[in-house]
Amino acid sequence: xxxxxxxxxxxxxxxxxxxxxxxxxxxxxxxxxxxxxxxxxxxxxxxxxxxxxxxxxxxxxxxxxxxxxxxxxxxxxxxxxxxxxxxxxxxxxxxxxxxxxxxxxxxxxxxxxxxxxxxxxxxxxxxxxxxxxxxxxxxxxxxxxxxxxxxxxxxxxxxxxxxxxxxxxxxxxxxxxx
Length: 178
What we know:
The protein is built from six helices and eight strands; from the N terminus they run ββββββαββααααα. Helix 4 crosses helix 5 (155-162). It has helices at 64-72, 102-112, 128-139, 144-151, 155-162, 168-177, and strands spanning 5-7, 15-18, 23-25, 42-43, 49-55, 58-63, 80-84, 97-101. It is of the alpha+beta class. The strands form three sheets. The chain has a three-stranded antiparallel sheet, covered by helices on one side. The chain has a three-stranded antiparallel sheet with strand order 4-5-6. The protein folds into two domains: 1-115, Homing Intron 3 (I-Ppo) Encoded Endonuclease, Chain A; 118-177. Residues 170-174 have low confidence and may be disordered. Helices cover 33% and strands 20% of the residues.
């Protein structure tokens, strides 16, 4: 696909974005008063390429994928997100971007290995083998409160584990092994 350029939404007179995800300034600036220079993209805190856009001495940091989607797909509807179809946050080509619901976006991340769950989440207190132990203790009649004391979690969390509201993937693995 040939590279096409459109104005950046909200910065139409100052910047352009391409369907390949490149951003350039369209008005002269700096000591040499040059235009047409490509903007430096850096990786932001969440792993997405971002650029700094200036307008009337105010700065905005914007993700490149959102700029491409706004310019080429159209305005984002409330409740929708921009999804990278191939799961690669660095691939901001128009053909790799589409609007989806937050739920769709999360569900797509799981098979790509991009959504962390269970003990892969760094803040998780429990490990998969402990879930198996919790399920076995509950099956043998131990109370939720006693199980919670043993594993350092609340009664509600034990209930959620036993009833399949938390650690679903770990439970599926445990049930498959049995």
